[in-house]
Amino acid sequence: MRRGLRAPSYCLAVTRILRLAPVIAAIAAVTALAAGCGLATGPALKGTAIAPGGRSAIASWLTNAEPAGWDAADNRIIINRRGSDGLWDAYSILPNGHDEQCISCREPSFPGVGAATNRGASDVSPDGKYVLLVVEKGSHPGSIGSAETDPGKGVYNDLWLASVDGTRAWRLTDLPTSANAAVIWPRFDRTGSQIVWAQMYQGANLSHPLGQWALKVAQLRWSPDATPYLAEVRTYEPQRGLYFEPYGFSPGDQRILFASDIDVAAGFLSPSAFNAQIWTIDAAALDDLQRVSPPDRLHGAFSDYNEFAFYIPGSDRILISRTTDSSAHGMDYWTVNDNGTDPRRLTYMNQPGTAQYMGYSVGGGVAFDPRDPSRFVAGVSHDLATTHVQAMFVTIR
Questions:
Q1: Any idea where the domains of the chain sit in the sequence?
Q2: 308 touches 257 (CB < 8 A)
């Protein structure tokens, strides 16, 4: 590897570049594969695996499933799955894995788009009636269903609201049909009347390999004919050229939780986005920036990369997926106080010699059990491009 860039950091760098810049990633892919990236497979998880010190318990649940929310009203989990046609769709399913129902498969539920594009859920409303979706446009340059249009990558996507049964859907944004425009991770506040999301305005390049983004916050309103729309759209972008990924609002809706490379130093072959940190801002004024992730020392790309942060219900702690101390080069879950103090490692999926070891693993999006706040379902991937995801139940002990 080149100066200052370790093999594990390089592996995760290529994984993240693939999210938005497959052409740039292709230049690096041969070197990445030569370094064994994504090939550090471990044993399949059997039964319930306990972390060292009994900090957590992990149990497999579903393959090909990325959780997006947990409907408290009907006790159903919202997931995204890739179909046999290679396209993503959103589903709801019972915690026992039965009674799967597709939310986004119906036509003409998506006027002007049809049924054959990528679409995925990002959140479910507090009353369980609606889901926020990201939906690929029905027509755009390149191929329908191409990698950059996947949910969570968001190029050529718009933000939609749909009924949880999938019978109705409404487009909330109409972004330009451009490779420089994308939308990811829309999330409701605790009342269901406000939404936060990230919106890209400039695509990936060598200086900004994940693109250039801003946070958007808006009120969700309903017209007299029962059509939803966004109002009072506000933008948070303290400086241009940053990366943002939002995860929602604090329990009282006072703050917004997100990942960004704000105030992160760039290094040789290590753009600032490759060591993103977790932050909160005041939701009303979009100011009062506060850091949540611990200030660990940086030593190359992805040496301290943080994302997928969620408030743990009924506590003052936040769950974070981090690269810190990852022996198998992936990301494990940690918890910290909401002011960033007292970091504690929760899972050991990347740690050989532990019961939870699964080889290269990247902890992704989660949804907490509304009936048991110590349990959540998590999406975990084990491949370089993060295309094969399994859902696992994690219990905080």
A1: 7-396
A2: no
Express each pLDDT in 250-303 by its tens digit.
999 999 999 999 988 887 677 788 889 999 999 999 999 999 999 877 777 778
Start-end of H helices in the chain = 7-20, 22-34
Q: Is residue 216 a contact partner of residue 207, using CB atoms and an 8 Å limit?
A: no
Burial per residue of 114-140, b for 16 or more beta-carbon CB atoms within 10 angstroms, e otherwise: eeebbbbbbbbbbebebbbbbbbbeeb
Identify whether the C-beta of residue 321 lies closer than 8 Å to the C-beta of residue 293. no
Yes or no: say if 234 and 286 are a contact pair by the CB < 8 Å rule. Answer: yes
**Closest Cα to residue 309, out of 256, 374, 375?**
256
Domain 7-396 has CATH 3.30.310.10: no
Half-sphere exposure of 203 (CA within 13 A, CB side): 18
- Which uninterrupted H or E stretch holds 319? strand 317-322
How buried is residue 72: exposed, middle or buried, by Cβ count under 10 Å (0-12/13-18/19+)? middle
Whole-angstrom distance between the N-terminal and C-terminal Cα of the chain?
39
What is the reported pTM? 0.91
Which residues 6+ apart lie within 8 Å of 1 measured at CB? 7, 10, 35
